[in-house]
Specification:
The complex is a heterodimer of chains A (376) and B (600). Helices cover 44% and strands 23% of the residues of chain A. Chain A is an alpha/beta fold. In chain A, the strands form three sheets. A nine-stranded mixed beta sheet of chain A has the order 7-8-6-5-4-3-2-1-9, sandwiched between helices. A three-stranded antiparallel beta sheet of chain A has the order 10-11-12, with no helix packed on it. In chain A, strands 13-15-14 form a three-stranded antiparallel beta sheet. The mean pLDDT of chain A is 94. With 600 residues, chain B is α+β, with helices and mostly antiparallel strands. The radius of gyration of chain B is 28 Å and the shape is globular. Classes of the chains: A alpha/beta (376), B alpha+beta (600). Chains A and B meet through β6, α8, β10, α11 and α15 of A and α13 of B.
């Protein structure tokens, strides 16, 4: 089963922590981009033919920065170009402040059934400090208008460990998110990425981030609090009401194939890992003449595929299903990683139960120690 | 060519760092037409990069100049270069022994410095004729009258004989050349008697092997002669003789008083020990020239490659340096913390720094050096004595009756206003006050007995910083003295880290233990488990810090399906772990050792 990711690399303004591919730009470039994207959609449509597709995810950037007309045209085209199975998950990322009742209705009209809302925090001071264009109030408004449009499956993205954020503030954000009763809550830790204003400020000592002990406490609190409120913890950073897990993201973690369309998008299809150029101009030029413009195109070796299945799968709370590994590679996990697994077990970081290898609660906090052990 | 001995002058230049020795040498070479101005684009005598950068001469050479003096005669002037640093005082003494006279160069803006004085005393011991030269008189801040007073009062020479000069502008150069001819006596020596030639320097040449720089005192040294090194009895056959003007110019023989170099298929500079006497193998002299003793390392440290795989390359680098440096010794050593490396011995701190820098620069190797150590003399309870230069060899306390450490006599010259801070520094370093003398109303000479180990610990930098760079230091070994010394261990997770152990005075162990533990705490990344850091003397813990357990380390970001990026981050983490040394189940970054070892 295949997932499809489509990247919309535009934002009203770039946030201080973000290093995703996104640029502020004018309407003409957006129009040209969507033209190019339409050509790429057609290309892949021909490539994969009637292959069954399980999910469609429109991410960014800020997809909802597109006009109502652009959204309608592009999404309609996408939904028609591939053989999606009935009831497929169709997600659009939206940022509060860019969503209007009209847009929400159009999204619902073309079949979008899940909105991932970049709420990030419920504290206006924090939101401003990290460069978001929205206020806490706008999160409520957005949730209302999404629901009014008939889309019930809503995810709220939250970031823990923001500059100056205290444990109390984090707890308050979580409580407010839960009050809104979304189907899904993602809690990502703030990571300093090179080439972001935050990174530079941090290097220059101008940015105060919470101490490790604080972010660890936030993580621990979240793991205890959200399940109590009815959200089960199914991936290190993700919590969902029953049967509301993000199917598209599960594709990544289960190392299943997906296409990436749009500039800067990543895909993995038929044992090839590729990424599209994130040079917007180059992308537009190439696809205007219907030619792909890859930034990378690498066959995945068997060893790499094994590693990935492990370090991605271990992010899931249920871990890696050992039988699936065997079916895919015709050898047991222990044949390949026996030593590593024994070492990690002895340090109390992983455990094996019910045919799954998974992180212990301690291992969840120290996931990188575990994941890196599976990189060869 | 039969050389008239009366027309030879052998001299050297004694000067403090930066007082203009090299520039003066260049000027003399130019004035005598030995080299042209264009060839002098680089200062000739200091050939190594490092020497130029540090403004000091490490290896010495000799240059021969022809000079037509005012009396109409053509003289041969041999300028024998001397290293300007205290670590090489033995080499200096051998160079001086090859001369009959010395130019004493003093900076007109600075005055007499400690090292100048030390070398001057050496020159006087060798009965050299001293010609004081007051240099840099062109500078606005020059104060030749003050320097003249210093020459009278400190050195006890007639200041009316001092030559005012500026090597930069060329003022006084002719006067200097005439003074060399008129005031320095010609060499003595009998060509008819047994050969005695003093080796005052040597270097390794990849084509010729070891080349010895010699001054012939008696007899005649000829190409084809079988020769013998009097210290070792080893014999060689002279394949080539040359003088340096400044390039090697072959000659058939060297007569008494002459200076030149000897090549005799010697494979290693160990065969051409500085201070040794060359004689004829079949008709040896009865006695060697006086003053020879083999170079004796005073300072030791471990050198380790940062990348363990470069061990062999490090050994090769040391071997190559040793070809040219008979004073450098090394032997393999293993450390749990640092892996495979070498225990190395040096003449002193500067020698050590130079070797380290040359390894890094010329051989492009990254190395870690452990804290420098002196040689301790330990009397054991069974009435025996051992000498150790490595904390790892420290015997169990119960077996130790007494420990003695080398003391030096340190002579410090400084402006009067800094006497307070410098005396404080010497006190802190366990110095024992010996003497204080006013050279002039403004300048003071201090003398202290101080443990050598204290000089190794950043003393020179401290001295400079407390006197705004105006103090100069000279020291020489005086004797072993008993001290209350202990071995300080640093333990990680209860296990001692060999690379961080040191032998230290009991009174200082506490502070050092605390500061090492504190620094390590900053440098060791959090681990899965809490890591105790302890400083201990024997079984007694004197300081403790704790690295708290790592609580959170997990990639919590989706990266929109960019798995390659995730993998790269994890690879980086794994790579980072590989570069760590695992000590007592604690992962310690190599950088931590480097940072710790760099401090102090």
């Amino acid at each position: 089963m295949l997932g499809i990711y489509v990247h919309i690399p535009f934002c009203a303004r770039k946030c201080g922590y973000c290093d995703f591919h996104s640029v502020p730009t004018g309407p003409a470039v957006i129009e040209a981009y969507l033209q190019a994207l339409a050509n790429e959609i057609e290309f892949w449509s021909e490539q994969i033919g009637r292959t069954a597709c399980a999910t469609l995810y429109i991410g960014g950037g800020t997809p909802t920065i597109l006009t109502t007309r652009q959204l309608e045209q592009t999404l309609t085209k996408l939904a028609a170009a591939f053989n999606f199975e009935p009831g497929f998950e169709f997600t659009v990322e939206a940022n509060p402040g860019t969503l209007t009742p009209e847009k929400a209705k159009v999204l619902a009209g073309v079949g979008v059934n899940r909105i991932s809302l970049g709420a990030q925090a419920f504290d206006d001071r924090l939101l401003k400090a990290i460069g978001r264009i929205h206020t806490a109030d706008q999160i409520y408004t957005s949730v209302d208008l999404i629901r009014d449009a008939g889309i019930v499956n809503i995810n709220l993205d939250l970031i823990e460990g923001l500059p100056g954020q205290t444990l109390d503030q984090w707890q308050a954000s979580l409580a407010k998110a839960v009050e809104l009763e979304p189907a899904h809550i993602s809690c990502y830790s703030l990571m300093l990425e090179e080439n972001t204003p935050f990174y530079r400020d941090y290097q220059e000592g101008k940015l105060q981030l919470p101490l490790e002990d604080t972010t660890a406490a936030m993580f621990d609190y979240t793991q205890a609090y959200l399940p109590r409120m009815g959200y089960h913890h199914y991936e290190i950073s993700n919590y969902a009401k029953p049967r509301c897990e993000a199917r598209h993201n599960l594709i990544y973690w289960r190392a299943e194939p997906y296409l990436g369309l749009g500039s800067g998008a990543h895909g993995c299809y038929q044992q090839i890992r590729y990424s599209n150029t994130d040079d917007l101009e180059l992308y537009i030029q190439s696809w205007h003449t219907c030619k792909p413009a890859y930034a990378s195109w690498d066959p995945v070796s068997r060893d790499q595929a094994m590693d990935e299945m492990m370090f991605l799968g271990l992010r899931l709370i249920d871990g890696v299903e050992l039988n699936r590994f065997y079916q895919r590679f015709h050898c047991s996990v222990h044949d390949v990683y026996g030593m590593e697994i024994a070492r990690l077990k002895s340090r109390g970081l992983v455990e094996e139960t019910g045919g799954h290898l998974k992180l212990t609660p301690r291992g969840r906090s120290l996931g990188n120690m575990v994941f890196s052990a599976f990189v060869r | 060519m039969v050389m008239n001995q009366k027309l030879i002058r052998n001299f050297c230049i004694i000067a403090h760092i930066d007082h203009g020795k090299s520039t003066l040498a260049d000027r003399l070479l130019e004035a005598t037409g030995t080299v042209t101005e264009r060839e002098l684009a680089e200062q000739i005598l200091d050939s190594m990069d490092l020497e130029r950068e540090r403004g000091i001469t490490i290896k010495l050479t000799a240059v021969r100049m022809n000079y037509r003096a005012a009396d109409g005669q053509e003289y041969v002037l041999n300028l024998i270069d001397t290293p300007g640093h205290v670590d090489f005082s033995y080499e200096v003494s051998r160079s001086l022994a090859a001369c009959e006279g010395a130019l004493l160069v003093i900076d007109a803006t600075q005055g007499v410095e400690a090292q100048t004085l030390a070398n001057l005393y050496l020159a006087l011991e060798h009965d050299l004729e001293i010609i004081p030269v007051i240099n840099k008189i062109d500078l606005p801040s020059a104060d030749p009258d003050r320097v003249k007073r210093e020459i009278e009062e400190v050195i006890g020479l007639d200041s009316s004989e001092a030559i005012l000069a500026s090597a930069k502008t060329g003022v006084g150069i002719d006067a200097i050349l005439e003074a060399i001819v008129n005031r320095i006596p010609p060499p003595k020596g009998d060509p008819e008697t047994h050969l005695q030639a003093l080796i005052f320097d040597s270097h390794y040449d990849s084509y010729r092997g070891a080349v010895a720089y010699v001054r012939v005192f008696n007899g005649i040294l000829k190409v084809g002669d079988p020769i013998m090194m009097m210290s070792s009895g080893r014999t060689f056959e002279v394949s080539e003789l040359a003088v340096l003007c400044p390039l090697m110019t072959p000659v058939a023989q060297l007569l008494p008083g002459e200076v030149g170099c000897v090549m005799a298929s010697m494979k290693n500079v160990k065969d051409t020990r500085v201070g040794d006497t060359i004689t004829h193998a079949h008709r040896p002299a009865a006695e060697p020239l006086p003053g020879y003793h083999p170079a004796k390392p005073m300072v030791f440290c471990g050198l380790y490659p940062v990348d363990n795989e470069q061990y062999v390359e490090l050994r090769e680098a040391l071997e190559k340096l040793q070809l040219n440096d008979a004073a450098l010794i090394f032997e393999p050593e293993t450390s749990a913390a640092l892996g495979f490396g070498f225990r190395c011995g040096f003449l002193g701190l500067l020698h050590m720094e130079i070797v380290q820098e040359r390894i890094e620069r010329e051989f492009n190797l990254n190395i870690i050096a452990t804290a420098p150590s002196v040689i301790y003399r330990i009397s054991l309870t069974d009435q025996t004595e051992i000498y150790i230069d490595n904390p790892a060899a420290f015997p169990p306390v119960a077996r130790i009756a007494a420990i003695a450490e080398p003391y030096v006599t340190a002579t410090i010259m400084l402006p009067e206003e800094y006497v307070g801070p410098v005396m404080e520094l010497c006190q802190e370093r366990r110095g024992e006050f010996k003497n204080m003398a006013y050279i002039t109303p403004e300048r003071v000479q201090l003398e202290y007995a101080i443990p050598l180990s204290e000089i190794l610990m950043d003393f020179f930098d401290q001295l400079k910083s407390r006197t705004k760079g105006y103090a100069s230091l000279d020291y020489e070994f005086s004797s072993y003295r008993e001290s209350d010394l202990v071995k300080l261990d640093i333990l990680l997770n209860g296990k001692p880290v060999d690379a961080l152990s040191c032998i230290i005075h009991r009174d200082k162990a506490y502070e050092r233990g605390r500061s090492l533990a504190r620094k390590l705490k900053e440098l060791i990344p959090r681990q899965q488990f809490e890591v105790p850091i302890q400083a201990a003397i024997g079984n007694k813990v004197i300081a403790r810090e704790t690295v708290k357990a790592l609580r959170k380390d997990v990639l919590a970001k989706c990266y929109g399906g960019d798995i390659t990026r995730k993998r790269k981050l994890l690879e980086k983490q794994k790579e980072g772990k590989k570069r760590m040394k695992s000590l007592g189940a604690v992962d310690v970054p190599q950088e931590a050792f480097m940072a710790i070892l760099k401090v102090d």
